[in-house]
From TrEMBL:
Originating gene: glmS
SUPFAM superfamilies: N-terminal nucleophile aminohydrolases (Ntn hydrolases), SIS domain
Enzyme class: transferase
PANTHER family the UniProt entry points to: GLUCOSAMINE--FRUCTOSE-6-PHOSPHATE AMINOTRANSFERASE, ISOMERIZING, GLUTAMINE--FRUCTOSE-6-PHOSPHATE TRANSAMINASE (ISOMERIZING)
Matching PROSITE patterns: GATASE_TYPE_2, SIS
UniProt-recorded name of the protein: Glutamine--fructose-6-phosphate aminotransferase [isomerizing]
Presence of the UniProt keyword NADP in the record: no
Residue ranges of every copy of the Glutamine amidotransferase type-2 domain listed in the record: 2-220
Organism whose genome encodes this protein: Noviluteimonas lactosilytica
EC numbers, comma separated: 2.6.1.16
Function (record text): Catalyzes the first step in hexosamine metabolism, converting fructose-6P into glucosamine-6P using glutamine as a nitrogen source.
Domain SIS residues, every copy: 288-428, 461-602
Protein keywords: Aminotransferase, Cytoplasm, Glutamine amidotransferase, Repeat, Transferase
Length: 612
């Protein structure tokens, strides 16, 4: 969703801001803008546009924007429509400019108060309130930092803020509560950003601001203050985000690139297990043994694709560990009366580590007394792992395409590692079985690559899907979540309406939809449910439906005019959902390509969903 970048330097920062905003585009946005302090003219200049960053960049170039101090923003509309007037930065009295991520809950109250103090509002946003509030405290004789610190005390809600002021051209200030914000440390120049990718070509040395922190940046230094206003030293991290992971390279889309990166992403994610020569609690954190040893049940909380990863894990945990596992959509869990069990391990799964619903569900679980919390996450130091006791980082690398692909398969790897670890701690994983699961993981990157090699056959199928309006996905057992994931991928990037059902449920309703216009995708690996799936397929066939079956090499599926089959090279046992995720990703990608949609930035969607 929204993104922030800011820079103070001895060089023109406009290219830094524009590049940063381009790197933040993947998060999803509908308008963009920058504001700079023009020291020569003693002015704040601003340019904003709805639409792409490139349009705003062209306008900034046409107006010869250049400055040594500036802030930029990509906005995903919440309060107020997608208009230039609502785009950030917001300016107060032509003097200070501000960008903001998050939502201010008491904006109405503050707006009334500021109106009485003579402030006029130009936008419908909650953000403009903050700009005026800081201006108000500035007018009381406070420094820019003190004015920000006064103002944030009066805000309720979530914010990451960066502010510049034409009366103070050698300073930028920033604040964070509930939304990520980091400070980048350069040589004679410093930066703020909501996401390290925005500044990684200028510096890799970053300080992640903590809740309630404020910061003051000059060209020569950075000071951080805690929620009480006391100066504090925060750790400096060196980010390992690679520039290559942020570039398209030879690919046409990030989604395509990320689908093809999966053998590497899976191999990187299992590396720690391989180095450790087995499953152990220490993979999840220093006190993981104490946290996990007497766990009686698992509660998984996540949204979207991450939730589907959790659904697969339920099958693994209940069958391999032998303890109950519940999986909840985070936005449902957080508003339901939950019967808490302190011996439950609460596992949140999130690619971004920022998803608000997942974060709130975690906070709710903690408020109920759940102390055993584990985050499976792809973004180091993001909010959800920071709020969790244990962490397992997937090593998928930056995921830029809005549709999650490599994050999903690496989440599954992490969840399988968790399953085996819990089983081992409970004496349910003898040496031979552990070795065979380790071998399965070792072979997995190769099996994923074999599945990727099916792409040419899938392209041919995808062309048939391009003209369809609806599609049905079927799976059974631990492949039912893969059917769900396939349907989600198809609908979000190709806009073809798709539903997923457990194949056994077909005759209880959805069979009524089946006709020759409704393609039916079946995930049919060679497992104990194969014969059941085959009978379900007959039900579709008898109603004239056209079927597209993903099976394993040894599944013995007969092909006909109505039944098309693509075979993954071999069955990989319990890890099969990971391999079967690949063909449904490719099908969605190529169907979207054939329909000419914006694959990496599907309409109405954002990469990081930081609002409710
Ligand atoms: C779908 C997709 C979303 C995310 C969901 C959760 O392709 O990407 O459904 O999975 O928004 O996001 P994270 O995993 O960042 O919490």
């Amino acid at each position: 969703m929204c993104g922030i970048v800011g820079a103070i330097a001895d060089r023109d920062v406009v290219p830094v801001l524009i590049e940063g905003l381009k790197r933040l585009e993947y998060r999803g946005y509908d308008s963009a803008g920058i504001a700079v302090v023009d020291a020569n003219a003693g002015d704040v200049r601003r340019v904003r546009r709805t639409g792409r960053v490139a349009e705003m960049e062209a306008a900034a170039q046409a107006e010869h924007f250049a400055s040594r101090l500036g802030i930029g923003h990509t906005r995903w509309a919440t309060h107020g429509g997608v208009t230039e007037g609502n785009a950030h930065p917001h300016v107060s009295h032509g003097e200070l400019a501000l960008v903001h991520n998050g939502i201010i809950e008491n904006h109405d109250e503050q707006r009334d108060r500021l109106r009485k103090l003579g402030y006029a509002f130009e936008s419908q946003t909650d953000t403009e309130v903050i700009a005026h509030l800081i201006h108000y405290y500035r007018a009381q004789g406070n420094s820019l930092l003190a004015a920000l610190q006064h103002a944030v005390k009066e805000l309720r809600g979530a914010y990451a803020i960066a502010v510049i002021d034409k009366r103070d051209p050698d300073r930028m200030v920033a604040a964070r509560m509930g939304c990520p914000l980091l400070v980048g440390l350069g040589e004679g120049e410093n930066f703020v950003a909501s996401d390290v990718s925005a500044i990684v070509s200028s510096t890799r040395r970053v300080i992640f601001l903590e809740e309630g922190d404020t910061a003051e940046l000059t060209r020569d230094g950075v000071k951080v203050f805690d929620a009480n206003g006391a100066e504090i030293q925060r750790d400096v991290h060196v980010s390992d985000v690679s520039l290559a992971s942020l570039e398209l390279g030879p690919y046409r889309h990030f989604m395509q690139k990320e689908i093809h990166e999966q053998p590497r992403a899976v191999a990187d994610t299992i590396e720690a297990v391989m180095d450790n020569r087995g499953f152990s609690a220490s993979l999840f954190g220093a006190d993981a043994d104490a946290v996990m040893r007497d766990v009686e049940a698992v509660q998984i909380l996540a949204c979207g694709t991450s939730y589907y990863a959790g659904l697969v894990a339920r099958y693994w945990i209940e069958s391999i560990v032998g303890i109950p596992c519940a999986v909840d959509i985070a936005s449902e869990y957080r508003y339901r009366d939950v019967v808490a069990n302190p011996k439950q391990l609460v596992v949140t799964i999130s690619q971004s580590g920022e998803t608000l619903d997942t974060m709130e569900a975690l906070k709710y679980a903690k408020s109920l007394g759940h102390e055993r919390t584990l985050s499976i996450c792809n973004v180091p130091e993001s909010a959800i792992p920071r709020a969790s006791r244990l962490v397992y980082y997937t090593r998928a690398g930056a995921e830029i395409g809005v549709a999650s692909t490599k994050a999903f398969t690496t989440q599954l790897v992490a969840l399988f590692t968790l399953t085996c670890t819990l089983a081992k701690l409970r004496g349910k994983l003898d040496g031979d079985i552990e070795q065979s699961h380790l071998e399965g993981l070792r072979q997995l990157p190769g099996s994923v690559q074999h599945a990727l090699n099916l792409e040419p056959q899938i392209v041919a199928w995808a062309e048939k899907f391009a003209s369809k309006q609806h599609a049905l996905f079927l799976g059974r057992g631990m492949h039912y979540p893969i059917a769900l994931e396939g349907a989600l991928k198809l609908k979000e990037i190709s806009y073809i309406h798709a539903e997923a059902y457990p194949a056994g449920e077909l005759k209880h309703g959805p069979l009524a939809l089946v006709d020759s216009d409704m393609p039916v995708v079946v995930i049919a690996p060679n497992d104990m449910l194969l014969e059941k799936v085959k009978s379900n397929i007959q039900e579709v066939r008898a109603r004239g439906g056209e079927m597209f079956v993903f099976a394993d090499a040894d599944s013995h599926f007969g092909e006909s005019e109505q039944v098309h089959v693509i075979r993954t090279p071999r069955h990989v046992g319990v890890l099969s959902p990971i391999v079967h995720a690949i063909p449904v990703q490719l099908l969605a990608y190529h169907a979207a390509l054939a329909r000419g949609t914006d694959v990496d930035k599907p309409r109405n969607l954002a990469k990081s969903v930081t609002v409710e």
